[in-house]
Amino acid sequence: MKTERLDAWTSEGRRVAVWRSAPEDFAPDAPIVVMSPGFARRMRDVGSIALCLVGNGAIVYRFDSIDHIGLSDGDIRNFTLTGMRQSMIAAIELARATENRRGVRLVAMSLANLAAYQVAAEDKDIERIMALSGVVDGHRTITEVTGRDYLSMAREELPAILPVMGHDVDPVPLWTDSRETRCLSYERTIRSLKAISAPVANCVAEGDPWVDVGECTTAYTDGDGGERLVIKLPYSGHDLGRNPVAVMTILERMASLAIGNGPMHDADPQAVLMPTFDAVLEARIAERQQDFSEQRAAKTEGSPAV
Amino acid sequence: MFTQNLAPVSLIDSVVFGDHDWLENSVEWQADLRLELVREAFAHHLASCPQYASFADRKGVTAEHIQTVDDLVRIPQLPTSVFKRQRVLSVPPDEIVMNFTSSGTSGTKSVIHRDGVTLHRLCGMMRSDSPLFGNYLDGMDETNSTIINLGPSRSDSGNVWFSYVMSLLEQMAPMQSYVVGSDLLLKEAVDDVRRSLVEMDKVFVVGPPFLVSDFCQEVIGAGAPLEGGDSLFVFTGGGWKNRESERMDRHEFNKVVGEALSLADPLQIRDVFNQVELNTLLVECEHHRKHVPPWVHAFTRDPVTFEPLPDGEAGVLCFSDATAKSYPCFLVGDDVARVLSGVCDCGRPGVTMELVRRLRGSSHAGCAETIRSTVQAD
Ligand SMILES: [Zn+2]
């Protein structure tokens, strides 16, 4: 897998760091996949998925959202879902300009699933959406994660800092974004899903404390704009990336859905070529090095000239 | 709207990769889990490894015989010499990722064939928040820590198991390896540690004890003190190999290393036990006992009769490791040890192991006398 660093730009001129990974040789109609890690995860954390997709002929664009951890502009302190959505749009447009084709598939983790639905509701050239632990009710998930319903509070009641998954977040931008755009609401998800005619799938663990399988099933029934598929995983936890043996099983299924062309519920996981143990390990270590050296370069670039 | 289900993850994977801390559970709870995990592994190898199945058949043991924790000792165990003579596999040959050998320089070596699942499980244990490491790696992460490996890099380690395992620690934090070809680049390693102590919160020096000893001599010889303080950690494994004559006892080793590297606390030095046939790391706690996770059944056997020995009695160390999928990891080992069940002096409940010494002699068949004299000399 060859990975190169590219920059995309949001409509407001902010830089989104993108990694483009492609096979050595690829078909002219190779699937183009734009992939977003979830909240508090970097693009290098989804390296094994990229490796698997590339190994099966796809061209994969990954990005770190703005106002988030990772290599893009801004800090996770100011995280908003709108920032994540704008980053996704920037990465999609970069992929289209680079590959000179319109059709793009989205692979989204966790909270990024909401951004994917909102983007696809307004972009008819999104060919399919595949999520892992994809959030459908952002408001409820954020309440579960933070332990309190901060989004329903009055602004003056908000704490100065909200610790979320090991990161300090200023709740005001998130709260304002949620009020102004309804981007975290379940109703917005249903509206988006109704507008998406492309196939949509979500792999959800039955023991996921933050995303409920039943909630996803209901959302897909209510938002029945096209083919909808829920894949239930008999695992616990939200961060499925931690268990590489589970990841291998999920990957096979995810890859078959993300790069296939027929109906998602007929996709054949057996047809997927799985990356080897060594390839996954080496890619993970190499991408950590790449991430660190890009961070160092960004620091040098940003520091005042001596 | 379509709904599909994926196959469940096995119990062993949910324990190895999951985030529950078995050390928070009682000895009995761990024993029950061990029974379930090792019995499941036994059933797998009976069904998938014809050589092992016929061996178990000759011993007259089936999965049904393993009903209680006490029955685990009945699982037929292979002498390590079996892996020197034949290819023992519990998965189709095309699933094997690598064939590993021990690092010894003499005699025929064991060859252990590992598949991706078996290796993933080993890697799954090697994370800083795994109960396997107690709290030795607390606060370590890939952004604040670096590892100086007194061994070859993974790509240079070839099929040598110990080198490969140590190189896998790289998944926890960036690593530099200082054995190139047959040379240990001591000066470069020392310079790297000095540099890293300035830049990083935690610096780990990993390697066999004899190379750590060489590293310390290099530091002393350089004349410039190395201030390890509470930031430098030393993680040893693999024993003294062909430098057995230089072996220091643990107390002396800690003193020499602690002084040479100006460590704030000798507990920053820890040892790990592993061998090519075993798929799990047994990591030392604050009280120098190696804790045995619930997927490994460890006990000792009488060197002459091979009968299982009671808790705490020195004997031939035996293992049943449920994380090995590609080969039956039911072993009569090459060491003399004591195995204890209960609450360790460090406060953690479970099974612990204390090595007494390596067995002399190269195979178990016909070496009972050697084994016995080794044990009796203790
Ligand atoms: Zn202990």
Automatic annotation (TrEMBL), chain A:
Q: Which UniProt keywords apply?
A: Acyltransferase, Transferase
**Which InterPro entries does this UniProt record tie to the protein?**
AB_hydrolase_fold, LuxD
Q: Name one Pfam family in it.
A: Acyl_transf_2
What's its job? Acyl transferase is part of the fatty acid reductase system required for aldehyde biosynthesis; it produces fatty acids for the luminescent reaction.
The protein in question is named Thioesterase domain-containing protein
UniProtKB/TrEMBL annotation, chain B:
The species this protein belongs to is Micromonospora trifolii
Gene3D superfamilies referenced in this protein's UniProt entry, alphabetically: N-terminal domain of ligase-like (3.40.50.12780)
- Acyl-protein synthetase LuxE domain residues are 4-372
Q: What is this protein called?
A: Acyl-protein synthetase LuxE domain-containing protein
- Highest taxon in the source lineage: Bacteria
- Give the matching InterPro entries: ANL_N_sf, LuxE
Please name the Pfam families in this protein's record: LuxE (PF04443)
